[in-house]
Amino acid sequence: RLIYLNGNYVTENDAKVSVFDRGLLFSDAVYEVISVIGGCLIDMERHEQRLMRSLGELSINADEGWSAICLGLVSRNALDEGLVYLQISRGAVPERDYRWPSADIKSTVFAFTQERALIDNPMAERGMRIVTRPDMRWGRCDIKTTQLLYASLMKMEARDAGADDAWMTRDAMVTEGTSQNAHIITKDGVLISHQLDHRVLPGVTRIELFERAGAQGLSIQERAFSVAEAYDAAEAFVSSSTLLIMPVVSIDGHMIGDGKPGGITEQLRRSYISEVQ
Ligand code: PDD
């Protein structure tokens, strides 16, 4: 497996970065996870747009041919299905210092691939079990930074609680999953999803989801929903580049619907898959 690092495709052993890289010392880095299906990058343009926005919000100076980098890696690694992880950090600095030097630092860019079955995921048949946890992340969740420790901790807590993942809440309102956007469908057939603000990541899959949902005649409300509304929902699901559209069958032990993946959710997943295949 080759790794892309600062302009070259190198072996894993040769992919080395400085211990003074601000990505390591301060999580001063942003990233994208792009799904690959049938050797094609899914929604690369939207990932690039979000990446440029994340970089801009942090004043990291980098603008490269992101899609060419990812495509080069997919073809060199002959990846059919899985993902590309692309990370850009502010770069290495001479001394550890919270403030970065005003002179331009050379950003560190790397990418790797991971093989994974995205379409034939057994979880799509059984559905996900979710637990809710307080959202104690920083206030700029709209920037896709590598500050993922809280999400990791919550995924571990979810696993220890016998669940598949966690949805995070602020003031009893659901913001999003640890690494997915969270959605419910009410008993009146309305799709509810947190509005785009600093509390959630603007998911690439979420955009495509809304298009599919619109085409299916669902009405969409972009607003925060409460944990109580989620317990009471007809269906619940998540969206992300790696899970695509994935049904949720229980939240904090409350069965959603009849405890099986919801019919509308399954239709949305099928429709999304046929679009990207
Ligand atoms: N996570 N919300 C959070 C906090 C995320 O980390 C992600 C993606 C999403 C969904 O975004 P998208 O549809 O663009 O993948 C929402 C990726 C997959 C990850 O960290 O592995």
Automatic annotation (TrEMBL):
Look up the record and name the cofactor or cofactors this protein needs: pyridoxal 5'-phosphate
> What's the EC number here?
2.6.1.42
Q: Which GO terms describe its molecular function?
A: branched-chain-amino-acid transaminase activity
Transferase as a keyword of this entry, yes or no, is: yes
Alphabetical UniProt keywords: Amino-acid biosynthesis, Aminotransferase, Branched-chain amino acid biosynthesis, Pyridoxal phosphate, Transferase
What SUPFAM superfamilies does the record tag this protein with? D-aminoacid aminotransferase-like PLP-dependent enzymes
Give the GO cellular component terms, alphabetically: cytosol
Q: Which GO terms describe its biological process?
A: amino acid biosynthetic process; branched-chain amino acid biosynthetic process
Q: Which PANTHER family is this protein grouped with?
A: AMINO-ACID AMINOTRANSFERASE, AMINODEOXYCHORISMATE LYASE
- Please give the function described in this protein's UniProt entry: Acts on leucine, isoleucine and valine.
- Protein name, as recorded: Probable branched-chain-amino-acid aminotransferase
- Which organism's genome codes for this protein? Parasphingorhabdus halotolerans
